[in-house]
Each structure stands twice: as structure tokens, then as C-alpha cells.
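Our working data are protein records whose layout never changes between entries. An example says more than a description, so a record of this kind follows.
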Amino acid sequence: MGNKLKQAGLISIGLVAGVLISLNFSASAQKEAPTALPFEELRSFADVYNAIKQGYVETIDDKKLITHAISGMLSNLDPHSAYLDAESFKELQVNTAGEFGGLGIEVGMEDGFVKVVSPIEDTPAFRAGIKSGDLIVKLDDTPVKGMTLSEAVKRMRGKPRTSIVLTIVRKNVPKPLILTLQREIIKVQSVKSKIIEPGFGYLRVTQFQEETVADVVKHINKLFVPEKSTDQNGKETQEPLRGLVLDLRNDPGGLLHSAVGISAAFLPPQTPVVSTDGRTADAKRQYIASPEDYLRGTRKDPLQGLPAEIRSIPLVVLVNGGSASASEIVAGALQDHKRAIILGTQTFGKGSVQSVLPLSNNTAIKLTTARYYTPSGRAIQAKGITPDVIVEETMNGQSHEFLREADLERHLENDKENEAGTATPKPAKNKADEEAQIAPVEFASKNDYQLNQALGLLKAWQIIKRQ
């Protein structure tokens, strides 16, 4: 029996070594020579593999064991690296196009439960009042504990017009919340706009998708040539645009090249937007306001259709704790180049880049390959963008409490702040503030306090320009 186990162990080491070599080849070919395989550690892996195969209470097939091993390797690196099976890989490709099925929640994992990072605007989750930081502990009658994140996500997704019951634990709420949500085809309208007052426009980006840059151009052109309105005397008026609010609140991010394109819409050509730094040569690069860095393929540059004034018009950017990743790239670039005033609250702090590396059988791994930095060299990871003007959600100084990158288990540290020893401590909150129930803010409404402050800032900007 011992010899058989030993033989099987050697076979398993060979199998695992082969898997690792093929992974290394597909992910890192022409980058750097592969390192020597850690055979002692692989022997331990093989021992565990054999123990499961020989003694686990039920028969487990090899594919399932290897898949779980790969998934475990990636999920224990950081909150954003993951193994994508064929279904998850396909869903990721559909998601970036802006349409997918489900509830509309950005989620992660914490202590074995699904943790809500952010509900997506205009989705069943958003309308049901699900909040950042909520813990989903049960899906229908099935406890989440013991599920992988991908398994939980698959259960939440399903055919449109079917229902699912979520049991949610929320901070400072004594009893679990039981919510019934109906699944929908989630069509994320990534760009919205309107004239908030004559001469002042509002442009909202809810997610950075494949067509977001082209959509932003269409909306900006509409704002610059607004429909005629009637004044109090009955005369038709058509005021030129004198100021613009770019709203990135609750925008969880998306595609890097889309963020570069949106930044390029407001910055002079060839201006640095963001840089990335990682271990491989192709992870070390700078992205600039140039078609080569925001276009994919040989498509026509949508920014050629922008009015020239867009690069000089007074601009205020709204951010909050739900502004993450690509949103922070845009806010950081516009802030560093003093192109816009950033207004709101501290952003999420996701300053890492994930590369999707396709594998065989239509699967892939999503691997964190670099950190990104603003044009001045600031690292956003686990810190975020600090607004130029801090404005809370309400007039009395209250805001919703957001889950942030620094709150996630195994998050990457901010390498710049570690070197300098200047990590920003979290502000203390008194109990009364934490327990206060803040009504949901309807963005771009008359009661949107942060937007009203941004509009006041733009009007003051006009007065200063005239002096």
C-alpha cells in the first residue's frame, strides 16, 4: 500500500508540474525564464491530493480537484485574482459589453460569506436597497458558508423574471434582512447626461465599458448644443455650455483603455494619464492621451468628434467611496493636471490591474499583474483619491459608509505609502453617525447635495473668470 501511494504521489507531482509549466507558458511566454519548480512543496500537494483520492467520503474526479486547487491558489493571492471556468469567462466577456443577467451586485468574499462591494445603479439589487458592506448569508434556503464566490454568483444569476430570496446581515441592524429579488437582464447604461441649469451640464459615467468613450462623445455633443428652451418671457433661449459636472460616484470601474479615453476627452493630446508597474516587462508602461492607448483595433477615433472647448471648459468631478479603479484613474489624472476640481468623499482605493489570461477549454485566470499610479506617481492602492473639496452626501455632514479596498482581506498594500511610512489612518466615527439612517440619494435630483455644491462651485468659477 505504501509503495502504491508513493508511486501515485510521484505521478501526481508530475501531473501538477505539467499543469504549472503549461500555465507558466501560456501566461508568461516571451517574458522571463520560468523559475525552478518547488518539488518539496509539490510533494506535499501530491500527498494531500492522494489522501483525498484514497480516503475522502465520496469519490471526487480529478478535474474537480485540480480546478479547486487552481481556484484556491488564485483566490488566496488578493481579492481580485480568480479562476474563471468556461461559464464565468463567457460572462466576463459579456459584462464588459454592458449586458448580462442577474441581480446587479458587485461582490467579494469575506469570512465565507458574500460581501456586497456595490450595487449597480438601476438594477434589482439597487432598487431593493442593498448596500455596500452587506453580507449575504443565505441564497433561498441554502447557506452561503462553504460556497466559493463563483458558486454563489452562479446561484444569484438565472433566467429573467425568476426570483431569489437573499438573507442579508447588515451592520447595526439587529435582525437579518430577507429580500426577494426578481432577476433581470442587466443592461447597464454607462453614460447619462442632462442640462441641470442653463449653461451647466451634467455627465454621469456609471461603468467603463467597451463603448463608453464613444457614448461620452455623443452626450458631450448634445450638452454643447442643447435643445432650445423657453425663458420666463416666452422667448426661446439656447445658452452655450459654461461648466460641466462629471459624476463618477458609485462607478466601480471597468476597462483600463476606456478610462484612458475618457481622460483624453478632457486633457491635451499626448498628456500622461496613468502608469502601471509590475514584475513583467509589459506590466511596466505609461498610458497617454493618445488613440494608440485608448482604441482597440483600427476603429475610427471617437474623440475626433468632440468640440474643442471641452478641454478648457470649467470641470468638477464628483466621487465617493463607490468610485473605484477606472474611476480613480480618471479622477487622479484630471486632479494631477489641475484640469478639474475633485469634489466629494474619499474613493474606494483599487489601484491594481487585472489581466485576463485565457487557458485551454475556454477557461481563464484573472491575475493581478500590476499596480497603477497617477501621472505624478501617486499610488491609489488601498488609499484612493482624496478630493480637493470634501463634501459629504448630506448638508449635516453625513454619508453612507462604504466598503473600501483596505477593508478587503488579503488586499495589496500601498507600496508608496509603505516606503514613506505615511499611510493615512481611517477617520474615527462616533457611534451616533454610524447608527444614523441616511436616505438613499437620487443622483442628479434637486436633493443631490453634492451636485448642488458642484454647481455652486462652477458658478463661482464663472464669477472669478470675469474679474
About this structure: Confidence is low (pLDDT under 50) at residues 1-30, 419-436. The first strand starts at residue 82 and ends at 84. Residues 99-187 form a domain with the Pdz3 Domain fold (CATH 2.30.42.10).
